[in-house]
UniProtKB/TrEMBL annotation:
It is a single-pass type II membrane protein; Single-pass membrane protein. It is found in: Golgi apparatus, Golgi stack membrane; Membrane. Belongs to the glycosyltransferase 10 family. GO terms for biological process: CD4-positive, CD25-positive, alpha-beta regulatory T cell differentiation; ceramide metabolic process; embryo implantation; leukocyte migration involved in immune response; leukocyte migration involved in inflammatory response; lymphocyte migration into lymph node; positive regulation of leukocyte tethering or rolling; positive regulation of neutrophil migration. This is Fucosyltransferase. The lineage of its organism: Eukaryota, Metazoa, Chordata, Craniata, Vertebrata. It comes from Equus asinus. Pathway: Protein modification; protein glycosylation. Keywords: Glycoprotein, Glycosyltransferase, Golgi apparatus, Membrane, Signal-anchor, Transferase, Transmembrane, Transmembrane helix.
Amino acid sequence: MAVSVWSLGNPELGGWGLWLSPRRQPLFAWHGPTQRLRALVSLAGVALLMALWLLWLLQSSPGGAPMPQPTLTILIWHWPFTYPPPELPSNTCTSYGVARCHLSTNRSLLATADAVVFHHRELRDGWIRLPLAERPRGQPWVWASMESPSNSHGVSDFRGIFNWVLSYRRDSDIFVPYGRLEPREGPAPPLPPKDRVAAWVVSNFRERQRRVQLYRQLAPHLQVDVFGRANRRPLCASCLLPTVSRYRFYLSFENSQHRDYITEKLWRNALAAGAVPVVLGPPRATYEAFVPPDAFVHVDDFGSARELAAFLTGMNESSYRRYFAWRDRLRVRLVEDWRERFCAICARYPHLPRSQVYQDLQGWFQS
Ligand SMILES: *[C@@H]1O[C@H](CO)[C@@H](O)[C@H](O)[C@H]1NC(C)=O
Ligand SMILES: *[C@@H]1O[C@H](CO)[C@@H](O)[C@H](O)[C@H]1NC(C)=O
């Protein structure tokens, strides 16, 4: 993880390593007994000061905490979209590589939890209310949402309450993308055979959405098969990947265009399915922060829908194959389970700013 790599290279701690190195010259030269005593006393004083400073450094510097961590209790006030919540056995987070992290939905733990998480949807819909009167002093509260600002009404109700944000935004306190590429061990599976052009799965179809406008412009020039509830051709969960994998392209069109808002439409529906994503969302530079620049087609690279369609239909086999070059060394890792997202709070916990408060959560989220 980037943060822990940084802490290993922390120049302040590195400096300490040098200071304490036995090859350094002695601090004092020895003379008579009085001087020796005085020197010893000063040495002890210096050692004490150094120890105190070291302790302070370790506690205050982000990432500079090699001391053993106690088990953290993260209270999830309401499990996102789900009641009753899933079982949360004690090894829930260790299975995601996070140690000493206890997720719980037991509200009796409010008084003692190390952090409490509130998911926006249930707050907004009035399914839950914030237990403001019972909030222990200084307890960090986390606002969690994986939806874009366009689909998150009522954020402005929460001013000066939350300390940390868990979201897909890279500048979140707890950043949880919908997926990522990680190193592949062993050879990539062969690319699925392709006998169709472009697929799109859409359930929420509104004329004012940019993706719908673009689809309307593309459709006369490109063979697009539309699946999903919007077209009364729903795909079952296990049917999606085998269906999409027969297509050369998948329209990874986000429902709204916002900073860092890149969802499973890229990660699962296109990359994991083995189709080339044609993306509509944040700018190309954002996508390039997540995947190689030649792994996707960005609609902004074209002057018109017609040009985009001509580029896709005219692409020869060798150009097409190049979009999959990343598969030789990388594979898709989907991050879809809320348990994994919440365990990330523990991983980040030692580095999170304790005294921060989102006075203007809405302003931050819209920016
Ligand atoms: C919730 O936590 C309290 C306090 O630790 C405990 O007494 C109670 O049994 C727990 N409830 C459940 C359902 O686990
Ligand atoms: C495929 O298309 C690319 C880009 O237009 C072109 O440079 C390349 O020569 C073509 N390859 C073949 C085998 O036609």
